Amino acid sequence: MKTYALLLTCVLFWGSNFVFGTILVQQFSPMALSAVRLSFTALFFIVVMLFTRRWPTLKMRDLLLFLPLGLIGTVVNQTAFFNGMQTTDATTAALVMSLAPITTAYLARWLLKEPLSKPMITGSVAALAGVFLVVGRGGGFSLSLSLGEIMIFIAMLSFAVSVILVRKLTERMEPLAITIHASWIGAVLQVPCALLLEPSIRLSHSVWMWLLAVGSALGSQVIATLIWNRQLKEIGAGKSAVFLNLQPFVAMLVGFILLGTKVTLGQLGGSLLIIGGVLIASEVLVKKEPPLPVPKRGSDLNA
Known about the structure:
The protein is an all-alpha fold.
């Protein structure tokens, strides 16, 4: 239960980040916001390492995973996310990101050979139905995607891939070391991209906007990421990722509190489906069953 409580803490950080992102992209450009948040996150870890004198070592074989992790899980993820938040509301963005558990679970099955239990599949379907109900306000949904939603979809896919890469790294590295290296590598890749694509970046913003940008970055990219990476090692990528389905509920609630966004009965009903689906998938509400057999064919990251 402690593991599940910690995963819920991560969801609170990340769910709130949708609303904070909506606020911040009205002041910062997407590339500048991504670069600023990553830079402060990397700087935080560098300062901590200088004081503790415990800089984690990085082997060449690990770098082969960290480079795609920094590029896909940081640069692509953050850039696509904040570009998408310019035209997509927080709840819709949370819906698209909630497809990550299903994507991650199947990637974990084929690439990491992690089993899929029947409760996990059932819970994922129920939770996914809930997020559609939340976004559809109880009145259905459209299959046509706007440019903003496509960008959020790219952010979701890049996050799912990064979860798989982190899962492989946790087999031989501590979560803190993974987070530190992923942060500075991501910042090194992101800042030049921001300066190249937006040479006239405006940084003259209010103190409150800067505090929100830096604070939300440290909360979601430092605290939540450290917790998440550690729990990945405990229960696996597929099962832990199912908790991401709670993000629409958190985004809806925080949006109501901070932005006054109305909450409908359809959204509340969808949120209940999401919570129920997460509980089923985590096997809190059901008895444990034997996992489904792992396919014999498929690629492996060890190959």
